[in-house]
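in:
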């Protein structure tokens, strides 16, 4: 049996360099690196004319943070961090029409201007706009969503997942 050639040795060195060079990167939540472990999410303000949008978005954010389990959602008086902001957009434009010119599909689009603040240091970790959307067809075509309420829930969930990505995963 022949001893391994230099290519095998170089391959092993390359693998070790990649592994050790990338060792400080990972997919674990940013909160594990000394970030806040508790967060408060007071009810957002509503700058739209859509009644209840602020409560729906706030509930979706709390649900996403709770399900992720990286931080504990607590009352504001106990929180190390806080998510604040307002729902700035709620729209439901028509996406497509049938042959007779009647609306066939709608997109519910929701945006919120939010900030994630570390209460311990008094600094803003990030701020910006997060957005979500959901499409529904009145006819139920394609087996998708069939009501505005379903699309609204999908939009709120997508928005909260984007917030979760920015807050917990630190992307």
């Amino acid at each position: 049996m022949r001893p391994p050639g230099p290519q095998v040795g170089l391959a092993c060195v390359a693998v070790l360099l990649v592994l050790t060079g990338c060792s400080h990167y990972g997919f674990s939540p940013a909160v594990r690196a000394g970030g806040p472990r508790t967060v408060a999410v007071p009810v957002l303000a509503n700058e739209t004319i859509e009644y209840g949008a602020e409560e729906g978005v706030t509930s979706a954010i709390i649900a996403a943070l709770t399900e992720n389990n990286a931080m504990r959602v607590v009352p504001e008086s106990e929180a190390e961090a806080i998510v604040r902001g307002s729902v700035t957009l709620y729209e439901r434009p028509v996406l497509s029409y049938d042959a007779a010119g009647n609306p066939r599909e709608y997109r519910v689009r929701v945006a919120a201007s939010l900030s994630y603040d570390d209460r311990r240091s008094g600094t803003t970790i990030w701020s910006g706009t997060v957005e979500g959307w959901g499409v529904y067809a009145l006819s139920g075509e394609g087996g998708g969503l069939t009501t505005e309420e379903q699309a609204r829930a999908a939009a709120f969930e997508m928005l909260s997942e984007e917030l979760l990505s920015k807050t917990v995963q630190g992307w």
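note: The first strand starts at residue 38 and ends at 40.
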